[in-house]
């Protein structure tokens, strides 16, 4: 049971860590695209 709880917390932590990543990358990409279009 201990192993399962540890794995569960690790998975939850990784999952919460990856949620904001895609939006940040998309925003950064959009900003860079806009800058390229300005040039």
From TrEMBL:
Superkingdom of source: Eukaryota
GO biological process terms held by the UniProt record: positive regulation of biosynthetic process
Listed InterPro entries: 4_helix_cytokine-like_core
Entry protein name: Growth hormone
Organism: Bubalus bubalis
């Amino acid at each position: 049971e201990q192993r399962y709880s540890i794995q569960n917390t690790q998975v939850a932590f990784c999952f919460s860590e990856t949620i904001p990543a895609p939006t940040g990358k998309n925003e950064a990409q959009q900003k860079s695209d806009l800058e390229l279009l300005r040039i």
